[in-house]
């Protein structure tokens, strides 16, 4: 059951074991973490199936893998390997500039990124069973994830307070199905879990996202690009569970060594920004 | 009546909602000291390795064992079932070792083998909608354990006195009857203690 906890990016079996031992609730098997994808440039594609299988062999927690936006076949290939979740991810180079994958055509559940309520509900319509923010991956900068989480939650509050007849126009504004919007109006929350992702680099970052209402946290480059991955991984897991216990967060943050080097997002060119991929 | 939900990781909010719909007060439990004020405890589904690790880290193992020794009812679902078992197949270290059961993790397979079904459970009037997600199975039951339901001849719900476990997620549907059953266990238990 994916709710609460920390999902960690790993590039091999050894890292997957470190993540599991630290208390990760799932791992994302990748060929390169986002900061390396950023550094390498070029087209980023799904990982080599060998890496995914290797990771699946060594851990008992769920294993996730990324397919390119709109790349039906990459997703089907990963599903055939038996991965537990698929991430249709903007971290990889999109394969389709118009259409996302029809996720209802799969038995494996999907997680998708969203910057706002419209994007989240469109992904859910397509069959996504988990949403995450699209913080700027590989930057170690939390600002975009914060923006997306705040925006989605404020839009949900707005929809909740609308009268029913206002929902029709709002469905049009957001570009979403009316029935789904009605569900948000009635329940005051998304029909699926919403995790934080992109730019989480420290235990305090993870706790901040939980404070803002995230159901859990993805940590990409933050762990295995830090000085001491094991300590960072454990500290982020604890800070996520006890996100209001500031003394504990202070304690686990002591002597962690250097976190990953961050990137100021305003220094990125439009072409370098990954959160703008997907629609 | 106050019933706690162990909130280290997993489906906490859903259990709180279910227990409140069944007529008790739900308490989010993050510290062992909180157990003192509770009459029952739910250990939710999530990842048993994560929950087990954090239980050790924060002193929950001893505290929950003491809670059980005092005769207070505990209900473990999915990962909660795993952490309550005396024995886990595949060499994984057992956690609370409260129930005389042997369990197999992810027995139904990976995420894509997750499913829902209507289940007859002994003690419930109507079949229960049960959601199985990477669910564990009880492969052996020992002394004092009563089997409450099976799915395709495999044990998926069991009770040992004041301890209750299910390998599925009863908190993900609007059917609160198994939570109601657990509340009845607490009430009966109180009557005995008093």
UniProtKB/TrEMBL annotation, chain A:
Positions contributing to D-glyceraldehyde 3-phosphate binding: 150
Source organism: Paenibacillus vini
Function: Catalyzes the formation of pyridoxal 5'-phosphate from ribose 5-phosphate (RBP), glyceraldehyde 3-phosphate (G3P) and ammonia. The ammonia is provided by the PdxT subunit. Can also use ribulose 5-phosphate and dihydroxyacetone phosphate as substrates, resulting from enzyme-catalyzed isomerization of RBP and G3P, respectively.
Domain PdxS/SNZ N-terminal: 1-197
Name recorded for this polypeptide: Pyridoxal 5'-phosphate synthase subunit PdxS
Gene3D superfamilies on file: Aldolase class I
Reaction catalysis annotation: aldehydo-D-ribose 5-phosphate + D-glyceraldehyde 3-phosphate + L-glutamine = pyridoxal 5'-phosphate + L-glutamate + phosphate + 3 H2O + H(+)
Sequence positions that bind D-ribose 5-phosphate: 9, 138, 199, 220-221
Keyword Lyase: yes
Annotated active site: 66 (schiff-base intermediate with d-ribose 5-phosphate)
From TrEMBL, chain B:
Coiled-coil residues: none
Catalyses which reaction(s): aldehydo-D-ribose 5-phosphate + D-glyceraldehyde 3-phosphate + L-glutamine = pyridoxal 5'-phosphate + L-glutamate + phosphate + 3 H2O + H(+); L-glutamine + H2O = L-glutamate + NH4(+)
Binding site for L-glutamine: 46-48, 105, 133-134
Keywords, comma-separated and alphabetical: Glutamine amidotransferase, Hydrolase, Lyase, Pyridoxal phosphate
Family: Belongs to the glutaminase PdxT/SNO family.
Assembly notes: In the presence of PdxS, forms a dodecamer of heterodimers. Only shows activity in the heterodimer.
Function comment: Catalyzes the hydrolysis of glutamine to glutamate and ammonia as part of the biosynthesis of pyridoxal 5'-phosphate. The resulting ammonia molecule is channeled to the active site of PdxS.
Protein name (Swiss-Prot/TrEMBL): Pyridoxal 5'-phosphate synthase subunit PdxT
Protein species of origin: Paenibacillus vini
Organism classification: Bacteria, Bacillati, Bacillota, Bacilli, Bacillales
């Amino acid at each position: 059951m994916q709710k609460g906890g920390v999902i960690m990016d790993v590039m091999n079996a050894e890292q997957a074991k470190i993540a599991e031992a630290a208390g990760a609730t799932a791992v994302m098997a990748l060929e390169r973490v986002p900061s390396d994808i950023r550094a390498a440039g070029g087209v980023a594609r799904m990982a080599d199936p060998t890496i995914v299988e290797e990771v699946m062999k060594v851990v008992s927690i769920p294993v996730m893998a990324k397919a390119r936006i709109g790349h039906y076949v990459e997703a089907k290939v990963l599903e055939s390997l038996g991965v537990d979740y698929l991430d249709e991810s903007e971290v990889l180079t999109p394969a389709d500039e118009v259409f996302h994958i029809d996720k209802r055509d799969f038995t494996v559940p999907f997680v998708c990124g969203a910057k706002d309520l419209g994007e989240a509900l469109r992904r859910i319509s397509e069959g996504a069973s988990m949403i995450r923010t699209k913080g700027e991956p590989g930057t170690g900068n939390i600002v975009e994830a914060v923006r997306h989480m705040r925006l989605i939650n404020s839009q949900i509050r707005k929809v909740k307070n609308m009268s029913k007849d206002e929902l029709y126009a709002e469905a049009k504004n957001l570009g979403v199905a009316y029935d789904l919007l009605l569900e948000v109006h009635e329940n005051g929350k998304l029909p699926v879990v919403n995790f934080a992702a992109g730019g989480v680099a420290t235990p305090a970052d993870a706790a901040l996202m939980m404070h803002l209402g995230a159901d859990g946290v993805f940590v990409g480059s933050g762990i295995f690009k830090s000085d001491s991955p094991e300590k960072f991984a454990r500290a982020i897991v604890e800070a996520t569970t006890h996100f209001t216990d500031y003394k504990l967060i202070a304690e686990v943050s002591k002597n962690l060594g250097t976190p990953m080097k961050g990137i100021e997002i305003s220094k990125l060119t439009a072409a370098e920004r990954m959160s703008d991929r997907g629609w | 009546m106050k019933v706690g939900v162990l909130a280290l990781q997993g489906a906490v909010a859903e259990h709180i909602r279910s227990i409140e719909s069944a007529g008790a007060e739900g308490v989010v439990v993050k510290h062992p000291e909180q157990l003192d004020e509770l009459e029952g405890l739910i250990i939710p589904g999530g990842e048993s390795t994560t929950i087990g690790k954090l239980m050790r880290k924060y002193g929950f193992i001893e505290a929950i064992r003491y809670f059980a020794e005092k005769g207070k009812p505990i209900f473990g679902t999915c990962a909660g079932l795993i952490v309550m078992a005396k024995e886990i197949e595949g060499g994984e270290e057992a956690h609370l070792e409260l129930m005389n059961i042997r369990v197999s993790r992810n027995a139904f397979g990976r995420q894509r083998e997750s499913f829902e079904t209507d289940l007859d459970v002994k003690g419930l009037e109507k079949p229960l909608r049960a959601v199985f997600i990477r669910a564990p199975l009880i492969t052996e039951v020992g002394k004092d354990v009563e089997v409450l339901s099976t799915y395709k001849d495999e044990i998926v719900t069991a009770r040992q006195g004041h301890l209750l476990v299910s390998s599925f997620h009863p908190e993900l549907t609007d059917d609160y009857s198994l939570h109601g059953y657990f509340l009845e266990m607490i009430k009966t238990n109180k009557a005995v203690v008093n």
